[in-house]
Amino acid sequence: MDRDDPRVIAEVGAAFDAYETALVANDVDGILGFFAGDAVRFGIADQQAGLTEQRRWRQAQPPLPPGRTLKDTTIQTYGRDVAVVTTLFGYPDSAVTGRQSQTWVRLPAGWRIVTAHVSEPRP
């Protein structure tokens, strides 16, 4: 199996960047467009299975605080169709560094997140 093919990393990196742009803009439809229909997402104090649950949850959430930054983002690829993205995130007015991981799979519609996990360490 080919690991960490630069072309696949570039493809997933572009998808991840577009996802992050939608997330920061609180573009619910844009965000959900990056998830597979049956994706599972575990948040800091929530969890959703499938797009219906995620849409309901996202529509009830306020926008992210301004100034979100990412750090130590890594993309690991496994063959041409699977990738894992991990990153740390933070905000200017918070000393807490959050953690985010996503498993991306190349589907007929393009790269989609099939699992996601977001957490923050306890202070």
Which SSEs are present, and which pair or pack?
Layout: H1 6-24, H2 28-32, E1 35-42, E2 47-49, H3 51-60, E3 69-78, E4 82-90, E5 98-107, E6 110-119
Parallel strand pairs: 1-6
Antiparallel strand pairs: 1-2, 3-4, 4-5, 5-6
Descriptive notes:
This protein is an alpha+beta fold. The protein has one domain: Roll (Nuclear Transport Factor 2, Chain: A). The chain contains 3 helices and 6 strands. The chain has helices at 6-24, 28-32, 51-60; strands at 35-42, 47-49, 69-78, 82-90, 98-107, 110-119. It has a 6-stranded mixed β-sheet with strand order 2-1-6-5-4-3, covered by helices on one side. A hairpin with a 2-residue loop joins strand 5 (98-107) and strand 6. The mean pLDDT is 96.
Strand order of the largest sheet: 2-1-6-5-4-3
Which residues sit in consecutive blocks of at least 5 with pLDDT less than 50? none
Name the beta content range.
35-45%
Which shape, going by the Cα principal axes? globular
Q: Briefly note the structural class of the backbone.
A: alpha+beta
Q: Please give the domain count.
A: 1
Q: Do you know the CATH architecture?
A: Roll
Total beta strands: 6
Number of discrete helical segments:
3
Per the CATH scheme, the topology name is: Nuclear Transport Factor 2, Chain: A
In CATH, what is the class? Answer: Alpha Beta
- Helicity, as a percent range: 25-40%
Distance between the termini: 40 Å
Radius of gyration: 14 Å
N-to-C SSE string, H for helix and E for strand: HHEEHEEEE
Strand count, sense and barrel status of the largest sheet are: 6 strands, mixed
Mean pLDDT: 96
